[in-house]
Amino acid sequence: MSKTFTPTVLLVDADPAMLDILSRRFYDNTSLGVLAFGSLVGARSAILNENIDVDAVLSDIAFPPQTQDPTHDLYDGMDLMQFVSEHRPNLPNYVYSVYGRESTYQGRGKGSGLELEKWFPKLEIDRVKPWNQIERDLYKAALLTDKELTDKAKNEGLSQNCDGDSLVDWIRSSIRPARQTYLQRLPKPYQILAPIRVICEENDSSGLISAEAPGLGIILPGQGESVEDALDDLANIVVEQFEDFLDTGEGCIVGYAAIVFEKLKACVAKTTNV
After folding, report:
1. C-alpha distances out from residue 3 to 22, 199, 235, Å
2. What string of DSSP letters covers 111-158?
3. Number of folded domains in the chain?
4. Are residues 100 and 229 in the same domain?
5. 213: how many CB neighbours lie within 10 A of its CB?
6. 185-212, pLDDT tens digit by residue?
């Protein structure tokens, strides 16, 4: 089993504050990674991007017009769930909303044949803790489908029928997988053109979290006391490296540095809207 075995959850909500809260809950309380979008346009793009790995979707139901995708008939979370089921049929879908108990939305889901894992009440999100259930569900699914994980569990006496909490504890202590997540924000005036895959690991000696972007080829990792701190540090490193290349001049960059610069140009841009 690869050292980077850790599921990533696609979070979709039009409220930036809610996205920040959910991301922090996932980082602080689970070993899962996060890819977050505030619009149905962004979520659709991520689902269609073969270079982006996600293992579950957690989405709000209601989306204001400016965050919808009318070109592709995506107006709310139920439309997104239908889109996910068509393009990534094996992904488990979870929804949360203040409207979650209304028969209209429930009926749409059942009528369209959508298989939703769970509805969560948005106003009680810290009580129901969807991040815990999603982590348990994904690890239980992995125990049934990942042969290497199954064999290791069997060798250590862990039953496939064990409860979810015991499984999560065992994976964290025995497997200790690195966390796969995504870098999506950079210091102004720079912006991310495409999510950057990041691998986060805890250093045994220092206790600090390191964050590396293997696809970019940047040698220095970000570091911090939390995943979010390490991602922020990595974002600063990405910008510093990009600015160094710009100051050097493209014609003077050769060898491995030229390869790294090309990768950076594909996912980093400077915006004039500061």
Report:
1. 25, 10, 23
2. HTT--EEEEEEGGGHHHH-HHHHHHHHHHHHHHHH-HHHHHHHHHTT-
3. 2
4. no
5. 23
6. 999 999 999 999 999 999 888 889 999 9
